[in-house]
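Re: your question about SDR family NAD(P)-dependent oxidoreductase

S., sorry for the slow reply, the queue was backed up all week. Below is exactly what I fed in.
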Amino acid sequence: MTAKHIIDMSGKVVLITGGSRGLGREMALGFAAAGADIGITSRKLDACEQTAKEVEALGRQAWAHAAHVGRWDECDALVEAAYARFGRVDVLINNAGKSPIYDRPVDIEERLYDSVLDVNLKGPFRLSAAIGQRMMEGDGGCIINISSVGSIRPRKDIITYAAAKAGLNAMTEAFADAYGPKVRVNCILPGPFLTDISKAWDMEAFNARAETTIAMKRGGQPDEVVAAALYLASPHAGYTTGALLRVDGGMH
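Result:
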């Protein structure tokens, strides 16, 4: 990635939720390789600290902070702590997500329903509102929401997740309107990526489905989301806001 991309993020501060694993970790390392300092948050501090060490190995500053983004007060505490550490946030990436497994929709309990909406929708709202306002009052910035192709192609096994991510899509456009022109707000809709979560998949069945339902006939590699995020955070996307960018291998 370092040798190939043309985007320079030197001097920028990037805060990534869900930044200790999966696509969040890949973006943390990708932005660090492009020169940014990285704030990494998730519920597990030890995992954040491990990713922070990998960022520091690339010669950038890293900060680890434990937060449950489904909780309003912890979002507020995260914002205060990030600004105390770095003095600013140039790029916010709302990546944390939750998609529970259930047998039937009727089996979803209220507590589980609420937790899915809280992590996937309430957290990004509160962080975008709080950090976006500070960006507006300062030098501007970028917000990147990580949604899902499931938000536009929902299935019976991701009802609450798809609904929350569809809300995130709508919120992306609304925040772009609220905070433009100083703050650009965009959204990436990933398809199936072969992150640590895919270890629980039946890969033989997945590969068979991919042959007929994904134009690229495979799942995505985690680093294949990085360039999309770098583009949206960079001046190259200076006239791009409120956009929903599919990175899904051509699912159909």
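The first strand starts at residue 13 and ends at 17. Residues 110-137 form the longest helix (28 residues).

Happy to talk it through on Thursday.
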